[in-house]
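Worked example 3. Consider a protein that binds pyridoxal-5'-phosphate.
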Amino acid sequence: MTATRPIDLRSDTVTRPSPAMRRAMAEAEVGDDVLDGDPTTRRLEQRVAELLGKEDALFFPSGTQANQTGIALLTRPGTELVLEANAHLVHYELAGVAANWGVQIRPVTTPDGLLTGDLVRGALRPASPHVPRVGAVAVENTHNAAGGKVMPAAVMAGIVAAAEQGDVRVHLDGARLWNAALALGVPLASLARGAATVMVSFSKGLGCPVGSCLAFAAPDRALAWEIRKRLGGGMRQSGILAAAALYALDCNLSRLAEDHANAKLLADRLSDCAAVRPSDPESNIVMLDLLRAGDTADAVIPKLTRAGVLVVPFGARRLRAVTHLDVSRPDVERAAGVISRVLSG
Ligand SMILES: Cc1ncc(COP(=O)(O)O)c(C=O)c1O
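Given these inputs, the predicted complex is written out as structure tokens:
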């Protein structure tokens, strides 16, 4: 381990709440959100609903629980969830939609992680007593496993139109929807249009310790509240956490541009390195494909860690590096140098 602090590019979830965020949390007005409501939490829910162009929202401890609640609202047991084959809901929620809701995943393979209206149309099955019905369609924007790929509003509109033709609703996993809106230079609500349920996370690029919201139409609130409670997600003085999210919406949204610039910088600095091929990042995630025969993610990650740069494996010969609030431009420049030196050594 080097003497200096490691540069942690494993995820944008590793950020620590800043002193100012901690102050906002300490000063939050609170109540009992399960008993009769918490005023700060309610303020956050209303603000997020408005930002997303939805009627209401509910605060959750995690994105996973909010995603699961969204799917529960839109499906019935014995139906299928159509979604891109590498979506978070497919690989990183421990088969939750099957285990929790009796719903079958119907993964659609794409070349680049981008689901489209045509692909959804192809996955919808004609009504038949012999095959499962599609219960809902889920999309992810930005798409984590596709290297932070951004889905433009027009593509989303095509998916919504295809789903409507099949009489099914759409869930949007927008854990990093903030990054997508920034990358496209469009309002958040334009990327959520037509989705019946939308999840957004505060604990990723926005730098909060905890928290996500699920937004929906007003009549869905009562059932969403029940499902959250059943999953153990009812929180009492949740205003302490909601205050961090409100602070982040005020102070950390526009600075996501720095993370996107830093991701591009990392990719640019590594573009000349013969040992690695960086992706062309659209947001704050860079995928690094190892090019030298014999190099594997498992072999190179300990070497990078010893040299002070932390990344995660994303396939046998692929690494993922994520830029965030707690890595500066000089950190990223240093990380690029270390990666280049270690992989070329
Ligand atoms: C795209 C996406 N969706 C959902 C989640 C789940 O969020 P959480 O870790 O808060 O459960 C993540 C977490 O990294 C994610 O990247």
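Take a moment to read the result before moving on. The chain has two domains: 19-250, 255-344. Residues 329-344 form the longest helix (16 residues).
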